[in-house]
Fold this sequence. Notes:
Number of strands: 10
Structural class: alpha+beta
Strand content: 25-35%
Shape: globular
Distance between the termini: 22 Å
Number of helices: 5
Radius of gyration: 19 Å
Largest sheet: 10 strands, mixed
Order of helices and strands: EHEEHEEEHEEEHHE
Amino acid sequence: MRNVKIVCEYDGTAYHGWQRQPNGLSIQEVLEETIGIITQEEARLTASGRTDAGVHALNQVANFRTGSTIPCGNLQKGINSLLPGDIVIKDLRDADDSFHARYSAKSKIYIYRIFNNPVRSPLRRNWCWHIRFPLDVKAMSEAAAFLEGTHDFSSFCAAGGDAEDHARTVTAASIEREGSDISFSIEASGFLRYMVRNIMGLLVDVGREIITPSEFKVIMEAMDRTRAGITAPPQGLFLKKVRY
Length: 244
């Protein structure tokens, strides 16, 4: 059996997240069914991690086992020919037998995009969070710097999350602005459910001067989700890269 590694890009707008769902179409389901058609086998994908409903990926990594002898290039072309327009396999290759998309990952990079303009953009509605109020990016950057290092991120963990250990190591966190576009980038050893969206919700409070960067730090260290404010909407979030 070959161990095949894929890198895929998708627009999550029309899907109920990565993972198969009993009552909604998922990215995993579409990919597995399509791979199965080409290989004439039942396909089971293991991803680097889940993305939630409405969240996108620039470079999601997954792997699957197959007895098919179809060359990688032909396998990729065949699968892509049947996939819908909002999902594509950017790279497909044979991997070492020990490769595991989730457990072999060293870190992940997520980006969150905001369109900060008094007037909304219909063309951006599925790929950013529109905020019409002015945002102080300098203050947001100051607050984001507190995220770096190893911390307990319970203040940014979704209620009812299945992770028992809420400690994660953030190696980089930054915010950039270009015109009306604001981009938050964060790299970490792993992420809790809704962690990036919850962080973004509180960073926007800093940008709106509802709280100060120092108060952001206090809330982060409180390890109390009820202190941290709203969860940012999913459409602004992208899985940018998985490092191995």
